[in-house]
Amino acid sequence: MMRRIVTYLIFSLIVMRWSVVYADHFSHLFEQASEAYENANFQEAIGLYEEIIDNGYESWEVYYNLGNAYYKQIDIGKAILNY
């Protein structure tokens, strides 16, 4: 019984650490994309936001910002799709 508890705790710690590293990576990409958008480099921002989504991270903020970047590129269809 004690062995199962220790195994569970170790597994939980590994998963929690991996989750933090995973989230940090996407947070960094999101910051890069937002900076590119602020500097009017919309194509780079689109690429970074799409990279975030392609790697399995989704949030309304990513899609909203991606929609804005497409709107700035005058690609209204993709802007609406991402809104």
Instruction: Give the helices and strands as they follow along the chain.
Output: HHHH
CA(first)-CA(last) distance: 50 Å
Number of strands: 0
Task: Catalogue the unreliable spans.
Answer: none
Structural category is mainly alpha
Total of DSSP H or I helical runs spanning 4+ residues: 4
Helix content: over 70%
Biggest sheet details:
none
| Cα shape | elongated
- Beta-strand content: under 5%
Computed Rg:
18 Å
Average pLDDT number: 83
Would you kindly provide a written description of the structure presented here, covering whatever features stand out?
The structure is a single chain. This protein has 83 residues and is mostly helical. It contains four helices and no strands. Helix 1 packs antiparallel against helix 2 and helix 3 packs antiparallel against helix 4. The longest helix is centred in the first third of the chain and has 37 residues. The model has no long low-confidence stretch (mean pLDDT 83).
